[in-house]
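Let us work through a complete example step by step.
Step 1: write down the sequence.
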Amino acid sequence: MATAQRDYYEVLGIPRDADEKTIKDAFRRLAMQFHPDRNKEPGAEEKFKEIAEAYAVLSDPKKRAEYDNRGFAAVSGFTPEDLFGGIDFGDIFGGLGFDFDREGGLFDRFFGRRHRAGPARGANVEVDLVVPLERVLTGGEEVVRLSRPQTCTTCQGSGTERGTTPRSCPACGGKGQQIKSHQKGNVRIQQITTCSACGGRGSIIDKPCPECKGRGEVEREEVLTVKIPAGVEEGMVLRISGHGLPSPEAGGAPGDLYVVVRSAPDPRFERRSTDLWHTETISVPDAVLGTQLEVPTLEGRAKVTVPAGTQPGEVLRLRGKGLPEFGGRKRGDLYVALQVCVPKWLTAGERELYERLRNASRESPRKSKEKTRT
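Step 2: predict the structure and record it as tokens.
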């Protein structure tokens, strides 16, 4: 059964008289929620496509007017380039690193647009970046260090000494392969092997580049500064264009670097989305009588009151002391889980006090019954 197409205003959750800012804000919020780099739930990708298409139509005054007058018929013949060609998604998402580039990026993969003709792009590289919770709280810059092969600037990737060019391999005629054939009865057998003379390159370098020794690329350590947005989510991917592996073909563009952001382990807290959890251990008297504690937060220490009669496993909540919501204004909470420490060893004086306490608790029910009878 075919699924009915939803009204674009309904998709974005906005009224039909919404202004440009309302449309843009709604798209930004929903796209961040369902972007495939952040949301791995089934159906998130299709939801993201639906949101992007709705924004592409409603953000363009002419397309929006035609849609308002004629409905889906007005945009049924549009190609992906017709819809998304004039939209700067990088500007909308403020450099958060999402793969919104129109050439070879997310929208190419989703909407089937073709790449420009030319040399193949280099492979993408993925690295993990571990950041402290304080950086998640405030956002800011972090340094990424990585070693990767880069196109040799001396020979521009040709592998030859400046002023020279490689020559075609005479053994394989520049094909990089050697073909040996022989007849066996009525069957002709061909054996194709990598050319041993040129190593499959199809060319021979008589004068290799002294910098890269003929490889066309050199290994270099690179130091990059990455902007971490406040409230960055666990496993969020930030994209840095052009810092992947070099193209396997001369003149090709390098791939991209994908930085996967993860929270550093913190002995004080456990991160659960925007909430933080902390465990405190209190004594039996403090659980019975109540007390005040100083607990750590990401902004210093805070006082909390433990009420009298607190039971093991009870949780106290400090509102707004967690992590900020990515792309939003809310902030999570800090939860303090209380454990009650029962002593294993007692001094003689402590044992006497506990015995007196036990006897008193046994007598209390009898006194209550006597009062009830009178």
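Step 3: interpret the result. Confidence is low (pLDDT under 50) at residues 100-104.
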